[in-house]
Amino acid sequence: MSNLREELKAQIIEQLNLEDLTPSDIVNDGPLFGDEGLGLDSIDALEFIVLLDTHYGIKVPDPNAAREIFHSVESLASYIEKTKA
Amino acid sequence: MKLVAHSFINASGLYVNGTRQIDLTGEENFLKKAYSELNIDYSKFHKMDNLSKLAFLATELMNEVVSFPAEGEGMQLIFANQSSSKQTDMRFIDSYANQGSPSPSLFVYTLPNIVTGELCIRHKWYGENTFFIQPAFQSAQFIEQAELAFSKGNTQCLCAWVDAKWQGNEECFLFLIDHSEGLLKPTELLEIYKSYTHE
């Protein structure tokens, strides 16, 4: 299961054009959004929607749920695992 | 008006007031290296395109030798370049032409004046800002625009020629002008710019 987390980190770096970062710079349960995380914002949330659809065939129908799903690599991975189960 | 300070960044280094502070020669990613050398902790930097990174780094370095106005108004930004947001425009085109879908995170940087927005967010400047597209560095126009800004009550103008034609060919000449007594001539500004670019 940790492979999924590493895969997600690489996809986040590529999808969001964060070339300065490496997967090791991203903590599994660290916040992705806001100044304390990777500094991501609402535009990047759109990138996550594209990423989930493109790579995993998953759509996020409820915008309110997106805040929790996109919180961290861990929450993203958990959502993918739960949806794909 | 008088010139308070100037800084410059390109692939060879980071300079302030004519002196190289950080040697970036041979660095594959000189912007990343400069960020690391300046010991900055600002996660939004990694999201920026190269145009914004250039101006951000030049401003951070200048802020080590001068104090910018505190939060609020009084600071006007006057920026210009030749290539607009061309580098990011090309990457955005590639995202939808070859990578499958248009990238929102690239799209937001497909206007050059996003650079000034990034700096205003960082330093909490709420004054006016302008971004001109010009065929080359035009020192007289910067001074003309600064005079206009001071006539409106601004006290300082942060000016920059920041250009990113393609990877490895980026530069930012940043200079701070104050409204106080002094005579800043276009030729003086041009000579400083040329001294950095060896034109």
Question: How would you portray this structure in words?
Answer:
The complex is a heterodimer of chains A (85) and B (199). By secondary structure, chain A is mainly alpha-helical. Chain A has one domain (2-84): ACP-like (Non-ribosomal Peptide Synthetase Peptidyl Carrier Protein, Chain A). Chain A has 4 helices and no strands. Chain A has helices spanning 2-15, 42-56, 63-69, 73-84. Chain A is globular, with a radius of gyration of 12 Å. Chain B is α/β, with parallel strands linked by helices and 199 residues long. Chain B has helices at residues 30-37, 50-62, 86-97, 104-107, 114-123, 139-151, 186-197, and strands at 2-10, 13-16, 19-23, 75-81, 129-133, 156-164, 170-178. Chain B has a 7-stranded mixed sheet, sandwiched between helices. The mean pLDDT of chain B is 94. The radius of gyration of chain B is 16 Å and the shape is globular. Chain B is built from 7 helices and 7 strands. The two termini of chain B are 26 Å apart. The longest helix of chain B is centred in the first third of the chain and has 13 residues, at 50-62. Chain B has a single domain, classed as Peroxisomal Thiolase, Chain A, domain 1, CATH 3.40.47. Chain A binds chain B through residues 15-21, 35, 37-40, 43-44, 46-47, 50, 54, and chain B through 29, 31-32, 35, 42-47, 91, 100-101, 103-108.
